[in-house]
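Let us work through a complete example step by step.
Step 1: write down the sequence.
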Amino acid sequence: SRVATAMRSLLVAAAAVAGSGVGASFIGSGVCLHRTARFSALLIHRDVTRQGTLCLLERDGLLQEARRRLSRAQKKLDKAEQRASECEEQQAKLLASSDASLDELEALPPCDTLRQDVEEKATYLKDVNELVRGLEKTPTESSAQFAELTVLATKLGIDDKPPLRPPPPPKKPKGPRPKPRLPYRVFTSEDGAEIRVGKTAADNDLLSLEPEHRDGNDWWMHAAGCPGSHVVIRADTLSQPNVLPSETKIDAAVLAANYSRAVLNGKVGVTLCRARQVKKPPGAKAGLVQLQGNVEVIHVNWKREKQRLERLQQQINRSS
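Step 2: predict the structure and record it as C-alpha cells.
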C-alpha cells in the first residue's frame, strides 16, 4: 500500500544517513530528516493527506522540475560568464593603456564580484546536474539513493512541482470605454439643429478649423469685437443646409454672446459666416482667426432673447 511504501522509504532514508548526525522527527503534519553537519530541517516526506496517507516526493515530478532548473541554471551561468568576461577584458585593456584614467577604471563594475557570481552559479549547475543524473538512474522512490537525492533536492530548493506562480492581476471591469474629450459643448436649437460651442481658446481652433469637428458648409458665429467661444451650427442637421432658420440663428447667437466677454445689455452684435470662410493667420495665438468673404453681423436684443439661455443650458450636461 501507499502507507507501507512511505514507511519503508522513511526507514531506508533513515538508514542511509545513519551515522551522519541525522535523525527523524515529526514536524507539524510532515516527516522530516535533520542533518546537523551539513543540512538542516530538510523535508523529505512533505505532508499528510486528509486520508492520513504519508506522501512522498514523487520521483517523476522531481526529475521534471530538476531538468527545468538545470536548463535555467545553464542560461544564467552563460549570461554571468559573458558579463564577467567582458568586464575582465575591458579592465585588462584599461590597465594596459597608458591613456586610461582612474575614472574609467572606477566606472567598471566589480570584476571580482562578477567572477565570484560565475563560480557560485557553476557550483549550483553542477549540483543540479548531479541531481538530474541521479534521478535518471533511480527508477523507484523506495531506495536509499532516492532518499539521499531528496536531501540534495531540498538543499537546492527543488521540489517535485514548479514554484507557484503569483496570481494574475485582477481584470479590469468591463464596460463602455470613456468617450474622448470633445473640444466643444453641444446644444440643440428650437428647430432641432446641433450647435457646437468651443470650450477654450485652443478648443476654438479645433472646432473652427479641424474637419473632424466641422464641415466647410457649416455656419459659424462669434461675438463681435470681443473674445469669446466659437460657435458652429452643423449644416447637416438643418432641414435645408443652405438656409439658416431664424430660431436656430437666434439660439446660436445667444450662446455666442453668453460665452463671450460681451456686455450683455441692450443689443449684442454677433458675427455670422460659413465655416469655410474661417482661416488661421500664421503665428496667430490660440483662438484668433481671420474671416474671409462676406460676413454678416446680426444683433441680438439681449433683454428679449436671454430667456432662451435657460432652455439651452439645461442641455449642457450632455456634453460637459
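Step 3: interpret the result. The chain has two domains: 2-155, 184-318.
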